[in-house]
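Hey,
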Amino acid sequence: MHVIARKRLNEFAALHPNTRRDLAQWYRIVKENNFSNFAELRHLIPSAEQVGKLTVFNIGGNKARLIAAIHYNRSKVYIRAILTHAEYDEGRWKE
């Protein structure tokens, strides 16, 4: 899959260094696989959840949440936001 924009991963990891390894692992899994649907994605990343049209990934236990729009037919993953657990719980990302 093509991940857009990796820059967000790097920026979040710079602010939260304890997530760097987990974000790199997520990136590697997504980049090296071509999922045709959510079921295939969930087979490799069991913590993934569908929330409306978005997919939410639990990064490193409860360290962070990565919110993405995935276009399986085009093999593209658009990172919408990466939030700490507390920021995610505020729910502003749903707006």
